[in-house]
Structure prediction request, 161 residues.
Amino acid sequence: MVQAVFPGSFDPLTLGHLSIINRASQLFDELHIAIAENQSASKSAIWSLADRKQFIEAATQHLSNIHVHIFSGLLVNFLKAKNIPLLVRGARSAVDWNYESELFHVYKMLWPAVETVVLPADIQYDIVSSTYVREIWKLGGDISGMVPSVIIELMEQKKRS
Ligand code: ADP
Prediction:
């Protein structure tokens, strides 16, 4: 059985992430989506880890081979604990490709068994990012072209409560 881990911040999950998940779920028997607790310095989270997990679960209900986790600490330690040396990542621009290539070499240094499968972004989601979604959402704009509708409904509910 081939298992893979798709790690990220997912703050929040976008249609771009979902497209990678849909495609990866066809490629691997089990796909583990791993939400990183450690926030990179350049990104400040606006949804809690529990909210982000709920959003992903709601948007992936049509898939039977998805598992959603929250992890803290080094991604490589999470991979080792699960004994899954296979990562899935998505890449939009050349900047993403370079970044993913660098990350791959860093992970490989920490655990030589690691391999990464990088899937090119779908053309219609090439400029979709969680960063834009957070900005547009904070300023009251329309994010329906970037985020699954089921997640927007949950966001609206949370805003009201
Ligand atoms: P990270 O903080 O690790 O970059 P993200 O949640 O921003 O986490 O992204 C997780 C993964 O999804 C990364 O590999 C990123 O390049 C990829 N990704 C983000 N947005 C898109 C998109 N629109 N299409 C395809 N892949 C994407």
In short: Residues 8-10, 14, 16-17, 20, 40, 89-92, 96, 121, 125, 128-130 surround adenosine-5'-diphosphate (CB under 6 Å). The mean pLDDT is 95.
